[in-house]
Structure formats: structure tokens, C-alpha cells
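In the current project phase, we have settled on a layout for protein records. One protein thus recorded is set out beneath this paragraph:
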Amino acid sequence: MDALNGKRIVILGMARQGTALARFAVGAGAFVTLSDMRPAERLGAALEALADLPADRLRFVLGDHPLSLLDACDALALSGGVATDHPLVVEAARRGIPLTNDSLEFMRRVPAPVVGITGSAGKTTTTALVGQMGQKSDRRTWIGGNIGRPLIADLDQMSADDLVVQELSSFQLEIWDACSPSFAAVLNLTPNHLDRHKTMNLYAQAKGNILRYQKPDDVAVLSADDPGSLKMGELARGRLRLFSAQRPISDGVYLADGQIWLSDGHAQTALCPAGISHLIGGHNMLNVLAAVALADSAGVSHEAIIEGIRLFDGVPHRLETVRRLGGVQYVNDSIATAPERALAALAAFEEPVVLLAGGRDKDMVWDEWARQVARRVKHVVLFGELAPALQARLDRQVAATMVDTLAEAVAVAHDKASPGDIVLLSPGGTSFDAYSDFVERGEHFRLLVRELA
């Protein structure tokens, strides 16, 4: 009998994570209250998707999160968009009501070994790449978590012989307790989501939960090139493996002489040429090295790892070439929602760059971004809520145009670019000033670029 059987669960948020957990919990015998700040008329599709569940097991409270939700509540589940300082969550903690989410409930039950991946940047690319490596082996491989389909939706189909590759955000990890993936990576740790976590210390604590509850026979994979990631080694409970593009590693993966090398602590193996990867940029090579370390630790064969690297073309909205027009390459990096991420994209190109930057801020530090943009960018087109602040930060050090919308930004960039240039959408800010998420922003950029004459 499942631990949720007969329990009264309140789930905040009807996005994909919340609705997946609601379906699972009802199936496990729980009594579920699903609450969302949006009214019913804005939740038509989500409500329809749950219409087959029994009404005596699932009720809805819409348009508000009243404190009365906590009356007779055994557990409070948070979707990713619900912060732990929300008044209802604070009151739940005061009453001693445990917090949970779909990824934590999944981890408590998954029968297969899990590769868990977090970091300030590169999570999705690394997750997708490890997943492809697993799929090229003989093991059935499940890919999800913070990307794609919530894994709890497929839990009943998984077996001990499978491999699970799970992307985990700081929002998911911050309430985790008592369990961590058998193979876990913190790719990097730089300022991000400080509007949510308030301090780097709290952000790092949330990320650290991916390692904090590992067992002595588990594996932690960290970057030797990133101080924030490397410091997480203090939390490692089992084997610690590193990856580096700068120096040899005694146990892990590194880049040397154009080759990807794999070390098990005893022998060094030249796995394959780094050039077989189609990914652009030094930060993506680090993602490849991390993926190799994780897949190897999880028992994926060298042949499947190499084939996974060779066939992997990347993930949409991450340094994705949309079009070449008139000798100009248009690149979609809408995923760049922090200045460090935008800097990594900028470093991927040697050609002159017309940069599209802006969106909404997350209380980030923009000093280094401004220095590098002034040094590297031919022309910067600023758009969205951030535009005035970024223009002030640049202080006329680089040619700049300020507009309101992404559509205007693309038109200006098209006008300013010359043959041989890169037009790069790598905003540095979130999309929430104008779009539901970075995917919608990236899709709009694609459309705008494809419509260029």
C-alpha cells in the first residue's frame, strides 16, 4: 500500500508538475485538493485533463490559496512556481505540515537507478545528452523532471533494469529531504534566481540537496573548473568524480590534445575526439564532459557514450541556429535568463555579434556582462523591462539601440548586421515581462527571423 493512501494532500499550482502529482496521488489512494491562483476560465485544458478522476478524491480551490486549505491537511505539495516564503507555505511549516513535490515523491518510489543533474546552466543539455547515451545502450531510459514530462507520470512503467535521467531545479530541490539520486551532478554554481532564493548561500543550499542525502556507494560528479561546483565536494558521501576542460583528472573526464579522456582512478582512456560533438561553445564542451562522467558512472558502455555524443544535435533555444540569411547567422539562445549564461553564449563566437539583450531582471549582477559586451559586441539591441537599466550599465561604451519588444529588436538587428555577423538572442533576463517562459520567447524569435525578407 502506498504511503499516500488515505492521506489528505494539498497541491499548489496546476502546471504540469502539480497536475501530474495530483493524478498520481489520487491513483495511490489520497484525497487531493488542487489549488491554483488562476480562475477556472483560465484553466480549461488543465481541468479537462483531470476530468476522469473521481470527484470524491479530487477537489479544486481556484483563484486563491486560502489558509483554510491547511485544515486537516497531511502534506502540502508545491509546484515549481510556488516559493517557500509564500504565506501558506510559511503557515504550513509553523503547523508542522510536511512539504513535498512531484520530484521528491518520485524519488521516494523509483525502482531504477537515477542520474540527477542540476546547476546554474547547462542542465537541460546535459540531461538530454546523458539520456541519448542511455538510449544508445541496451537499457530503457527515461528522461524528464524539470524538462519534458514529469517522471512521476511514468512511475508505474519503470523497472529496476531501467535508467532514469532527471533534470532538477533549485526550486524542486530546496524542499528535498532524506533522498538524493545515486548519480548526481552539480554542473556549476553562479548567481541565479536570487529574486526567489534571496542569497547565494540559500541558493547553494537548495542545489546541495542533490548530494546531501547520497549513500556511501553513490557517485557525485562536479566541475573542477567551477569553484562553486567544486566546493560542493564537501557534501559528497561516496565516490567523487570530476570533469575539466583545463587539466587532467585522476577520476573523471577531461579534455586534452583534442581528445575526451576518461579516467577511473587507475587507468586513462582516450574515449573519442572532442570534434565529434556538434555543440557550439566551451560551456557546451563542459556539458559533454559532465555527461560522459555521469553515463560512465551509471554503467553505460563507451560505445553508447560515443554514439550519443556523435548524434546529439542540441536542445531547442540553446545556441540554436535558426537561419542563415544574407551571410548573417541568426542564433536563438532564449534559455539565457542570467547574465552568466549570456556571457557563455557570447564566448562561443569569434565573429562580430549583434546581441539582443533584455527581458526581466532576477536581481542579478551585470558588471561583467557590461564589460564583455563593451569589448566583444558590434551592436547591442536592448528590449523589455531591463532595457533602460542595461543601457545605463553600458554607459555608451558600445553602440546600442533601445526598443520595447522582441519584434522591434529583431528588425533593428537585421538592419545592423552585415555578412559574416552573428545575430544572437541571448537576453540575460527572464521572459516573464512579455512571455510565459523562455520557450515562448524563443519560438517567437524563430518566427520573426523566418519572416525576415
Q: What stands out?
A: The mean pLDDT is 95. The longest strand covers residues 377-383. The CA atoms of residues 140 and 162 lie 5 Å apart.
